[in-house]
Amino acid sequence: MFIKIPPADLVRLTDAQHERNMYAHPNPVARGIFWQRLEVGYRLLGDVPAGSKVLDFGGGSGAFLPALAQRFADVSVVDRDLNDARRVAAHYQLKNVRLVEKDISEWNNTEMYDLVVTMDVLEHFADKSVPRRFLDSRLKPNGLLLVSLPTENWLYLLGRAILGKTKPADHYHPAHELVRYYRDAGYTLLTHRYAPRLGPFALPLFYIGLFRKSG
């Protein structure tokens, strides 16, 4: 079952003013859209074995950790700032979660993972090859990659304008560009969805995709 952290707990546990923490946004529509990204991604993992070794790459907000930790036996999160994730893990007493507070360029161990989760992370790298090389080195052969990517289409831009937000300077690549890049790099797209959903309809604000690394 997907675990959604209550807004009051998030405000108490995390830095609600941080750009990454839209999960605690005062606007319930904006907050709901961001939670739906995670929930849609979580559902795509339904057939992944519970014993899989999982890495949440860039998951410093801690928002996905309770859901991943109750679904999988071994979960790690790597980010340059883990203050929020650390407090979430302590609050939920997540004993099977390891926290790695490092830039990926400085993390030089040799651990390999069955699944790497990147929820709105890959678009923040100007050089697309930097995270791709990291993923190549961390994913086992035939390992899975879950992504969430902003589409940056007209609907996305409209939503940003309604919320009074400007495009972050480090949103370098839209979803379609990154999907094409990873497919060209040998990652097979298994399935994808759009989020958020309004009843039977999906609004294409975020592209949620599950890839398999080549063996």
String of helices and strands: HHEHEHEEHEHHEE
What is the count of DSSP helices, taking H or I runs of 4+ residues? 7
The main sheet comes to:
7 strands, mixed
Helix fraction by DSSP (H/I, runs of at least 4): 25-40%
User: Any idea of the CATH class?
Assistant: Alpha Beta
Strand arrangement in the largest pleated sheet: 3-2-1-4-5-7-6
Kindly describe this structure:
The mean pLDDT is 92. This protein is an alpha/beta fold and 215 residues long. It is globular and about 45 Å long. Strands 3-2-1-4-5-7-6 form a seven-stranded mixed sheet. The protein is 32% helix and 28% strand.
Question: What does this entry show, briefly?
Answer:
By secondary structure, the chain is of the alpha/beta class.
Index terms:
single chain, 215 residues, alpha/beta, Rossmann fold, seven-stranded mixed sheet, 7 helices, 7 strands, globular
Give the secondary structure arrangement, pairings included.
Blueprint: H1 7-13, H2 28-44, E1 53-57, H3 65-71, E2 74-79, H4 83-91, E3 97-101, E4 113-119, H5 129-138, E5 139-150, H6 154-162, H7 175-184, E6 187-198, E7 201-213
